[in-house]
Amino acid sequence: MKKYLKTLIILTLIVAATFSFSQTLVQIKQRGKLLVGTEPTFPPFEFVDESNQIVGFDLDIANELAKRLGVKVEVVSLPFDSLIPALQQGKVDMVIAGMTITEDRAKVVDFSKPYFEANQAIVVRKDGNFRPQSLEELIGKKIAVQLGTTGDLIATDVKGIEVVRFQRFTDAFLELQNGRVDAVVLDEAPAKAYVKKFPKFILSKVVDTGETYGVAVRKGNKELLNFVNQTLDIMRASGTYNKIIDKWFE
Amino acid sequence: MDALMELFKNFPFLLLGAWETLKLTAFSVGIGVILGTFIGMGRLSKIKLISYPCTIYVEFLRGTPLLVQISLIYFGLPQLGIQLAPYPAAIVALGLNSGAYIAEIVRAGIQSIPKGQYEASRSLGLTHWQTMRYIILPQAFRNILPALGNEFITLTKDSSLASVIGVSELMRSGQFVISRTFQTFSIYFGIAFIYFLMTFVISRIVRYIERRMATA
Lengths: 250, 216
Fold this sequence. Notes:
heterodimer; A: alpha/beta; D-Maltodextrin-Binding Protein, domain 2; 2 domains; five-stranded mixed β-sheet; 10 helices; globular; B: mainly alpha; MetI-like fold; 82% helix; flat
C-alpha cells in the first residue's frame, strides 16, 4: 500500500509541476519562458531537424520575440487543427505556425500584422496530363489537403471539389502519388520544397490568394498583441527580418 | 533506395520516440493496474455505494473512444481550471482508460476462483482483505496473465494516440521525420516495425512469466 501511495504522490507532484498558466507579459517574464504553439511538420517554417531541435522561419521569429522579453522559447508542438484550441485553453501564449489570417480564425483569436505573404500552390502528378490553372478547374475532381489549412478552406469553399483532409501534408502527397486524388492544394513554400525533392510531382499553378501569415494570440490579449506588432516593426526596420528570410528562403 | 537510406539515417531518431512510447506505456500500465485492481474488486462488492460507481466508471471509459478521452483531458479540463501538459495528460488518459479494461480482467479473474476458497479462507479466520491479498488475487493473477498481456500490447499501440496532443512518442517522431525527409512510406514502415518489435518482446515476456507461474 505504501508503495502505491508513494507512486500516487509522485504522480500528483509531476502533474502539479507541469501546471502552466499563460497570461500577460508580466507572467511570461515571471515564468521565464514564452510558450509558442506550432506544428513542426511544415518546413521551412517549422520542422524538427536531425538533432531533434524544432527549427524554422517561425521559430526564429519566436526567438526574436522571446529575446526582447528576456525569456526563452518553449515550443508546444501540436497538430495544426489543435493549435487554436490550445491557445484558447491557455496551453500556449501565442501560435506561430505559418497560420494564414482568415476572417473565421480572427473571430476566435487576435492576429498580429502579417509577417509573411504566402499563396496557394496546386500540385499534380508529372506523368499525367492534368495541369489545372485555377481552383475552378478542380471542380469535379478529388483533391487532398492538410486539415484546417488555407488549402482546405479555399478548396472547401468552391462547390463541386471533393476534398480529402489529412493531418499532415506529406500524407496528402502520398494520396496523390497513389492516384487516389488528382491534386494537392498547399501553401506555396512547403509545396515548392516538396516538389523540388520529388520531381515526380509538378507545381501546376500558384493561385494568388493574397493571403498572409500572422502571429495569433488569445482574443483580447492587447498587451501581448501590441508587443508582437512592435517587435515585428523593429525587426523589419533593423534588417533582422530580412536576415531570417534569407536564411530560410535563400 | 533513397527511402531506405533516410530510414536508416533516421532510425536512431525513431528509437528515441520508441523510448518515449515505452515510458508512456509503462506509466499508464502502472496507473491502469493499480486502478483496475481496486475497481475490479469494487465491482464485486456487495455494497452498492462501492459497486455502482465502479460499474459506471468501467462502462463510461470503455464506452467512449480513447481519442476523445485524450482530447477531453488535454483540451477540456482547462475549462475546470486544470492545466495539464501534454505528457501528463496522455498518461492520465491512457491510465484511466486501461484501468477500465484491467478492472474487467481483474473481475473475471476473481470470479474464476471457486467461491469455496473464499469461504474456506474466511472460516480459517482471515479477514476479507487478507483473503483477497493472500488467497484470491495471487491465483486470479495467474489466470488473467494472458488477458493482461493482451491489454499491455493494446496499450503500447494505443499510446500512439497521444500524438494528437503533441507527445513526441514514436508515431509523432515518425511524422517529424516524414516532414523533414518527405519519405512517407519507408518511415511509416519503420514505425510499424518498431511497434511490432516492442509488442513482440512484451508478448514474449508475458509468455515467459506465464510458463514460470504454471510450473510454480
